[in-house]
Amino acid sequence: xxxEKVMDHFSNPRNVGEIENASGVGTVGNAKCGDIMRMxxxxxxxxxxxxxxxxxxxxxxxVATSSMATELVKGKTVEEALKITNKSVMEALxxxxxxxxxxxxxxxxxxxxxxxxxxxxxxxxxxxxxxxKSDIHEEExxxxx
Amino acid sequence: xxxEKVMDHFSNPRNVGEIENASGVGTVGNAKCGDIMRMxxxxxxxxxxxxxxxxxxxxxxxVATSSMATELVKGKTVEEALKITNKSVMEALxxxxxxxxxxxxxxxxxxxxxxxxxxxxxxxxxxxxxxxKSDIHEEExxxxx
Amino acid sequence: MEKKIYLDNAATTRTRxxxxxxxxxxxxxxxxxxxxxxxxxSQNKKAVDEARGTIAKALGADITEVYFTGGGxxxxxxxIKATAEAYKAKGNHIITTKIEHHAVLHTCEYLxxxxxxxxxxxxxxxxxxxxxxLEKAIKPTTxxxxxxxxxxxxxxxxxxxxxxxxxxxxxxxxxTDAVQAFAQVDINVNDMGIDMLSASAHKLNGPKGIGxxxxxxxxxxxxxxxxxxxxxxxxxxxxxxxGVVGFGKAVEIAMATMEDRAKKEIELRDYLIKRVLAEVxxxxxxxxxxxxxxxxANFSFQFIEGESLLIMLDMNHICASSGSxxxxxxxxxxxxxxxxxxxxxxxxxxxxxxxxxxxxxxEIDYTxxxxxxxxxxxxxxxxxxxxxxxxR
Amino acid sequence: MEKKIYLDNAATTRTRxxxxxxxxxxxxxxxxxxxxxxxxxSQNKKAVDEARGTIAKALGADITEVYFTGGGxxxxxxxIKATAEAYKAKGNHIITTKIEHHAVLHTCEYLxxxxxxxxxxxxxxxxxxxxxxLEKAIKPTTxxxxxxxxxxxxxxxxxxxxxxxxxxxxxxxxxTDAVQAFAQVDINVNDMGIDMLSASAHKLNGPKGIGxxxxxxxxxxxxxxxxxxxxxxxxxxxxxxxGVVGFGKAVEIAMATMEDRAKKEIELRDYLIKRVLAEVxxxxxxxxxxxxxxxxANFSFQFIEGESLLIMLDMNHICASSGSxxxxxxxxxxxxxxxxxxxxxxxxxxxxxxxxxxxxxxEIDYTxxxxxxxxxxxxxxxxxxxxxxxxR
Lengths: 145, 145, 392, 392
Ligand SMILES: Cc1ncc(COP(=O)(O)O)c(C=O)c1O
Ligand SMILES: Cc1ncc(COP(=O)(O)O)c(C=O)c1O
What we know:
The complex is a heterotetramer, with 2 copies of chain A (145 residues) and 2 copies of chain C (392 residues).
Chain A: H1 4-11, E1 24-30, E2 35-43, E3 49-57, H2 60-73, H3 78-82, H4 86-92, H5 101-121
Antiparallel strand pairs in A: 1-2, 2-3
Helix pairs in contact in A: 1-2, 2-5, 4-5
Chain C: E1 5-6, H1 17-23, H2 25-28, H3 39-59, E2 66-69, H4 72-86, E3 93-97, H5 102-112, E4 117-121, H6 131-137, E5 142-146, H7 160-169, E6 173-177, E7 196-200, E8 211-215, H8 230-233, H9 241-279, E9 283-285, E10 296-301, H10 306-315, E11 318-319, H11 335-339, H12 344-347, E12 350-354, H13 361-380, H14 383-391
Helix pairs in contact in C: 1-9, 3-9, 4-5, 9-13, 10-13
Bound molecules: pyridoxal-5'-phosphate (2 copies).
Organism (chains A, B): Mobilitalea sibirica
Domain NIF system FeS cluster assembly NifU N-terminal (chains A, B): 1-123
GO molecular function, one term (chains A, B): iron-sulfur cluster binding
């Protein structure tokens, strides 16, 4: 079902984790659809993404696209990061099964959401970045075990 | 599908043939249904069936019931022959598949038709014998080869 | 049992040992459910798609256009019922022929009871559809033409390409029941304008219980069997993996050997036909002399009845058929033989012999001798023959 | 491939070698069409009826009440659609549950689009139908109650006898999808008031592509597949003789070993459940603790997603399932888990392990260790777990 690259990024995901006091954090997706991605960015004063971490609740493709997305943004400037699309993530993974394409969209949105957070925190406007619409729009009730 | 008795009477049918100047001949069934039976009876002055022959166009069951019917009537008086029913023919054959029961009816009717012919020829009335309704009711058109 | 002579390959065929060998691993080793995500099962998905690809290639179709079913009958039912349903808004008229297999005929009769109108086209004395009648039968409400590729009883092959053109010109869907024709004669769904095509594995040395429906891309048709998302959501139910794999293997072999096989069968068939017609009097060949399946011979022997003939052949270890297998036991003579104009009594006396490449000249010789003996014996007991000889 | 641990017997099972052995002669030797009149083929008719007899006995039914189909899905479709059609004059209301297999659910949805009304009953948190709700749902127009015997995801066994009594009291036909239950738990159609019952061979170590529908004598129901006169004129299509024979053999063995097998499976299952619940925090068992199939365990692991878990298990050669196999790949969480009240995020994190008698304690131990490792790893990457630990 998945390409070798996807399987590689799924079994050995790069940049899993959190960043304390990150420059920007974005969380997209929702539990109802079964995918939640959170991306942490550490951006220096020159606007270069020095570090990136992610956490993902989701299928193999969701994990792999998150992992690949972090690799793609690392070392990039904010402007360059903005140009990373779901297509570039997919291509970098040698493709995804049709039913999993939405996962790559989520990765794109996660980057945008983290950048948006960074912009808001620093009170700057990033050209071409819109407020991401996807987010955990409903907290699911928790149940007792 | 068929009992051993049926197969025996089918593969070695008894009394196949014609009787010249038979006392009575009866033909029942029609080509449309795929079964035609003709029975020849040779009846002596005392009303005893001295000889019997048949010809049948039909399936295995039709042939076997005809054959069995001839065995059952041979040596019987007209009155006794009249008592032979399709059930007695079937029983004598150890049964027939449900779709083939109509063949045994045909055998009963063939006996009746031959007796009717005998009665008509001799201008007598046989108690309990009605004019058989079944007969070749339509000559099929023949086709060229 | 003594060695039998099997001459009923239109009823069903022997599954090839190579086919069984191909199937075997999928029972006890690679037994996973193709829909499962794990590697162990996804190899089965691949195996299913490989078979699908082999079949698509044999039809000149795309791999996404082949949908597996539980047999030819299901494929026929699916094509006809689901089209009727999907195109209800457009119309309620279906055109078919009088000589279809019961899988098509009874499905059409079912639809007639449910508000559809069905035209059953006549055929000529050789069993060929009259194209002008077909054209005339088309109405604004016609949504489907379903005409079999080759007939199972008399082997007649229809002018499928011409029918496809008529269907296309009138923008009507065209389904063909190719259960007897697939992998026996050349078929190209695109060249022939076929929108849907049914086939069944056990007619071509594959296993029983597996068939397919070809559905041209873009043809909207509903599901017949609802449930899981198998077969691109069009036919639910856990895939019969061994069956599919066996089907694929059978098609692979049948396509590779088609030409040689047909040549061999035609030679043997023609020898059989020639001898029977020459040596058994009052006998006719049913169906078209040329436009017929390579392996089919169908005779009518006047004055005798088919079942008796079959049983006596059986007693001589010859397996043959009168009407189609699934209707023997019924008392009606074959609807196909009646449709080509045979009177009842002659239709009753018909014999179908359908060969395979494994049959030999010796078998055919033996069979002809036995036919002669048996026909003679049965005629001697036939009141119809008695009448006939008296009249002469 | 390294030795795999197969824990997905609800998706499909390994065909038993004895079953394959029983089938084999019917491919290449006794390959005749059971409808043919000759001796060579009539032995196949006998073989089919022997299998039918074995199955009838397993149900406490009469041999004439068992009709072979191309699988469980077809049997479900047949029972529901054909009843709907046959009893149209009486009413248009059908009662089922929210936790049926898609073979039933999607068939009901299809009927809804065609003028029928369907009530989907709730189940309690263990997946058991509420009998009082069932009683209340019955209307004068109700023609069919279709409730599964045992659920394929969470293994819950329904109070079938009680449902049968309610159906009988209200003179409504009762169909049960017993695809997961047949030959796994005791079934007697007469004692339980079952009018129709579906089953599928590949769930009980038989071959894929063969199932049956039990139809009680006197139940009038139409055909789903029209054509030849097979299966007492109720289900057309050349009989899948090897499939039927394999089904018969599988049932024979499954019935003979049922008691011992269940005992063994229950022991292993309970060991698995006990360990997982004790050793993996934030985990729940789905389904009823007692009224469940002997081989079914279904867990939800909070904060993680099922597919990831499955793939990682697969990388460790463990075959398991989240929702039902035929819907994996879909993005919706299991409708069954939602119906028992799980929130979406938890439904997404479910794992179904379904054992066979061949599984060992060692395999279970290994599996539990792997589950622990993987769940831990996935939680460490889960934003939901992060939020949860932060909140604490
Ligand atoms: C022309 C034709 N159509 C349909 C069928 C039905 O195929 P199956 O019996 O495999 O369902 C057959 C054979 O029985 C056939 O010969
Ligand atoms: C409860 C239930 N019903 C129906 C089916 C469908 O059976 P099949 O896939 O054999 O058609 C299955 C299995 O897939 C099942 O588990």
